Amino acid sequence: MTVTATRLAKPAPSLDPMIRLVADDMNAVNQVIIDRMASEIPLIPQLAGHLIAGGGKRMRPMLTLASAQLLGYRGTSHHVLAAAVEFIHTATLLHDDVVDGSDLRRGRRTANIIWGNPASVLVGDFLFSRSFQLMVDAGSLKVLNILSGASAVIAEGEVNQLTAVRQVGLAEERYLSIIDAKTAALFAAACRIAAVVAERPEAEELALEAYGRNLGIAFQLIDDAIDYVSDAGTMGKDAGDDFREGKMTLPVILAYARANDDERQFWKDAVEGRRTSDEDFAHAVALVRKSRAVDDTMARARHYGGLAIEALRCFADGPAKSAMIEAVEFAVARAY
Predict the structure, then answer these.
(1) Per-residue pLDDT reduced to its tens digit, 43-59
(2) H/E stretch holding 108
(3) Inter-residue contact 3 to 324 (CB < 8 Å)
(4) Which whole number is the average pLDDT over 136-162?
(5) Interval 176-186: pLDDT, tens
(6) Which reaction does it catalyse (predicted)?
(7) What is the pLDDT, as a whole number, of residue 7?
(8) CATH architecture of the domain with residue range 15-334
(9) Where are the domains of the chain?
(10) Dihedral class, residue 234 (left if φ above 0, else alpha if ψ from -120 to 50, else beta)
(11) Nearest 5°: phi and psi at 110?
(12) Which one, of 29, 128, 142, lies nearest residue 88 by Cα?
């Protein structure tokens, strides 16, 4: 590479600008989280703290804080609400790991493996309850409506996904409706509530909601692609988990649609649980690559990422907007 090319090379997108942007606010959020995880039952903060301290990027609460900065909000309600968003997310992770029987989360043993399924479910319930207390503390019925509505939609999305497992003929439209509910809904709500507490016009609420929703869809599409292109160290979970659980993610939907008869029979056997060995997963990866299903999944993610960035057009340029744009670019670039 020439010296000129080296100088012109654009650095890889990062969450660092957003992390720096919200650092002081995040310290306040972390204090709310610590205070509200407290319980006279030692297992509750112990188990919840295991997951919350597990190395996650805290992207959802950061989106609430960054959105508030984008709008010039000067109050403190966004700290309480960002903590509520994190509690909702953590509760859903605890429940998801039980449903999926997961062993790893962000490279660490899952809470259900350490403490068992009943404890994980009940502590998840505790965190949901705490999140609703925080919503009430914020003193806005509209915020309560948005976050409680998102919580219901997430649960519906998880049930929809559960009933779609091992269904080889799953339509792409249903897959998109599942990820819109189970992932994008909380991204959208996390951004929109900042506009509510900042008392901004509904057009700005909807713009932030669109930003969060499209970012969330892009984020999940990349997650689903990563299952077929990365190792456990990169993903923080076992490679091939989605494959072995019979989940019809977009890479599989596209690969199945483009398969010949023999390949379709393999996918049918795999999704229905009859081909789940390491060799079978390696064959699945080869088929996904051959069909360019991962490439097209990533292209869809870039499309939704572009919609997220476009939704910010109505806001003034500045550090918050730049950080939120780079967060989208980071989300989409994770698989490369």
Answers:
(1) 998 988 887 776 677 99
(2) strand 108-109
(3) no
(4) 94
(5) 999 999 999 99
(6) 5 isopentenyl diphosphate + (2E,6E)-farnesyl diphosphate = all-trans-octaprenyl diphosphate + 5 diphosphate
(7) 44
(8) Orthogonal Bundle (1.10)
(9) 15-334
(10) alpha
(11) -75, 160
(12) 128
Lookup result for tokens 């309850």 = 129
Question: Please, are residues 300 and 221 in contact by the beta-carbon 8 Å criterion?
Answer: yes
* DSSP string over 169-182: T--HHHHHHHHIII
Burial (CB < 10 A; 0-12, 13-18, 19+), residue 40, is exposed
Q: What is the pLDDT of residue 5?
A: 45
Higher pLDDT, 241 or 285: 285
In Å, how far are 269, 283, 292, 301 from 259, measured between CA atoms?
14, 13, 11, 22
Read off the amino acid at residue 41. I
* Cα separation, 324 vs 216, whole angstroms: 13
Q: Is the pLDDT at 79 greater than 70, yes or no?
A: yes
- Which pair of structure tokens corresponds to residue 288? 């996904």
Place of tokens 């999940």: 220
Tell me if 331 sits within 8 A of 305, measured CB to CB.
yes
Q: How many CA atoms lie within 13 A of 31 on its CB side?
A: 7
Decide if 95 contacts 158 (C-beta within 8 A).
yes
Separation between Cα atoms, residue 100 and residue 116, nearest integer Å: 13
For residues 88 and 187, the answer to whether their CB atoms sit within 8 Å is: no
Q: What is the pLDDT of residues 93-111, one digit of tens each?
A: 999 888 888 887 767 888 8
Closest of 73, 88, 166, 191 to residue 134, by C-alpha:
88
Two tokens, residue 72:
């010039």
CA dist 183 and 176 (Å) reads 10
> Nearest 5°: phi and psi at 10?
-85, 130
With beta carbons less than 8 A apart as the criterion, state whether 83 and 134 touch. yes
